[in-house]
Amino acid sequence: MEDFKNKVAVITGAASGIGRALAHQCVSEGMSVVLSDIDESGLRELEKELLSAGAPILSVPTDVRDTSSVESLAEKAQGHFGSIHLVFNNAGVMLGGCAWERTEDDWRWVMDVNFYGVLNGVRTFMPILIDQGESAHIVNTASIGGLMVGPFLSPYIVSKHAVVALTESVYYELQALDVKVGISALCPGAISTGIAHSERVRPEDRPESRPLESEMERSFDEMLTEGVRTGLDPSEVGPMVFSALREDRFWIYTHPMDESSILPRARSIVEGSNPVYAPELTDEMLGDG
After folding, report:
1. Fewer C-beta neighbours within 10 Å, C or N terminus of the chain?
2. pLDDT above 90 covers what percent of the chain?
3. Would you tell me how many other CB atoms lie within 10 Å of the CB of residue 127?
4. Is residue 12 a part of any domain in this protein?
């Protein structure tokens, strides 16, 4: 896609962080925007802010874990604006700790939001975009953590690897079908958002888990929180994403991608050698590399 003026974008996880920045960027591109989030107060605040700037806005509270909620979002977007041209499956949460110490509720919450939320978006919106017969695009928010592996962040890393794999698979499917719809994987590094405090939007049906117990887990969590806090300002992400869309790029990075972040693991897979933990890769995921 190259021309976004007078087109329609749908954004999940729009109330804060990258989603909020994408909403502002869409408005600056002359787009109409459908905002969705489970955080209704944040959603109303952003809607008021963008409406005051004269932008065509519709906000729809949405729980991306729920297929029917995402389908309702699509129906309302179509009913209000007609066509849809750009979909950002962006909602996400983060949770750390040892994999075996996280409860089933912990795992299901993270996977339901980060992976199934994206899958629900793809399954709901892709048929609409294809049937329209117009140029359209989906951007799935993964993470640099979806391309690397480190300790004490397993639910998040597993969910983001799943998003990357899904997005790449769909990319091949779209190529085979030869349609006018594209898809990209947004893999941000450390961005200064509220994702390190995701418990604030944790739903009642997934009770809060126990505090981290080991000193190593707590130290990692503190490093994670600080890495996110000092990360890139979200406002810088919007222009990067739209630049990638204009250039039809699949991989969208917010930070330079060094081959040392990827090749040693790939070499280990090819050679069948045991993985070696490289703390510097964890630092890179947190924005310290």
Report:
1. N
2. 73
3. 12
4. yes
Longest dimension (CA), the chain: 58
Q: Kindly report, residue by residue over 249-266, the tens digit of the pLDDT.
A: 999 999 998 888 889 999
Find all residues with CB under 8 Å of 281, minimum gap 6, and list them: 148, 150, 261, 289
Q: Helix or strand or coil: residue 219?
A: helix
Confirm whether 270 is domain-assigned: no
Tell me which residues are annotated as active site: 156
pLDDT at 217: 59
Measure Cα distances from 168 to 119, 120, 152, 185, 206 in Å.
13, 16, 26, 8, 30
- The pLDDT value recorded for residue 261 is 82
Separation of alpha carbons 178 and 222, rounded Å: 47
Q: Is residue 169 part of a domain?
A: yes
pLDDT, residue 289, reads 31
Distance from the first to the final alpha carbon of the chain: 32
